[in-house]
Amino acid sequence: MEPQQAKRATIADVARAAGVSPATVSQAFNGRRQVDPTTRERIQAVALELGYRPNPTAQRLRTGRSGMIAL
User: Fold this and answer.
1) pLDDT tens digits, residue range 10-58?
2) Which among 3, 41, 45, 65 counts the fewest CB atoms within 10 Å?
3) SS3 2
């Protein structure tokens, strides 16, 4: 049997730990809306503590860009 891998932290996990909504976490990361600087710092600290990394597949779905060139 293979050892179980640790669950990857999600935006929802960061939001729960920081006491904010997932939308606020998203806005703090992508800078689309104004988020209070103190809240932004708390979100970033929690994300670092949880080991949050953006999901590249979700980013490609959102932007419609794969970063690949077809030949």
Assistant:
1) 999 999 999 999 999 999 988 778 899 999 999 999 999 999 988 777 7
2) 3
3) coil
